[in-house]
Amino acid sequence: MSLEELRGLIIRHARDDDTTLIDGVLLSVAPVAAPPSAHPSGTCLALIAQGAKRIVLGDRAFDYREGQYLVASVDLPVTGQFVEASRDRPAVGFGLTLRPAVIAELLLDHADALAPRDDRGAPLGLTVSDASDELIDAAIRMVRLLERPRDRPVLAPMIEREILWLLINSDQGAAVRQLGLADSSLSHVSRVARWIRDHYAERLRVEDLARMSRLSTSAFHRSFRAVTTMTPIQFQKQIRLHQARLLLATRSDDVTRIGLAVGYDSVSQFSREYRRLFGVPPSEDAARMRGAE
């Protein structure tokens, strides 16, 4: 089993929208190193079979390349791009959505087989590791199922559990295990992060978020920053600016209207912070994106 076989399978079966006939399995092929794009990370495993990718969260960059994988254990506002890709050697990736319910079931059914670990701290929401031969082998067998429709409904859930089990017992196991535990530090932070994403235009108070997380204000602030690399206010700002960029690309509203729609009271502050994150003023970025469309 090798990355070469995985690359060939992904190139054969990848679609333009990255989806597949197996729920939760994503395949991507990028023939060019495109500019960075802002998007939510989701909770997922992302394994690079060829090329390299960079994910930026707040002021931290996470680089991973062929033979390595990234785990996103919280849905975070990130900016990502393939940094090594060409038509002769495209970037190729395998993805799997991490479902907390399946992880929780594994933890409950096989608690006796887990090595004792200290999972009390809040792990970082993005982590990168080298892929084991076993993980690459499982990914290959999962993609092969796209050619075996009769076996797919039975074997795909089994291979999904195998991949999750390998992650649970890997260097990144703490983040994956906490994703499946309803009362873990990661789950508390994830709950609040989802609330901020759903209410990004509203004013927020850290004390209210701490109550929502069932943690003290100081413990919540510490855990939130450990997981997301940002304070709750900085996290909300990232969500607002990512949403503003989506609106600028898809709506004809002017910059002022969109700045107000995502929660800014000051258009000048909106333009300043937008430029700081994306490198260009919102009006210029909107014209570029619409021109590309």
Give the SSE order as H and E letters: HEEEEEEEEHEHHHHHHHHHH
Oligomer: single chain
Strand order of the largest sheet: 1-8-3-6-9
CATH superfamily membership of the largest domain: Regulatory protein AraC
Number of individual domains: 2
Protein name: AraC-type DNA-binding protein
Domain HTH araC/xylS-type: 190-288
GO molecular function: DNA-binding transcription factor activity; sequence-specific DNA binding
InterPro entries: Homeodomain-like_sf (IPR009057), HTH_AraC (IPR018060), HTH_AraC-typ_CS (IPR018062), Tscrpt_reg_HTH_AraC_N (IPR009594)
Could you write a compact summary of the structure shown?
With about 290 residues, the protein is α+β, with helices and mostly antiparallel strands. About 50% of the residues lie in helices and about 20% in strands.
Name some characteristics of this structure.
293 residues, alpha+beta, Jelly Rolls, Arc Repressor Mutant, subunit A, 2 domains, five-stranded antiparallel β-sheet, four-stranded antiparallel β-sheet, 48% helix, DNA-binding transcription factor activity, DNA-binding, HTH_AraC-typ_CS
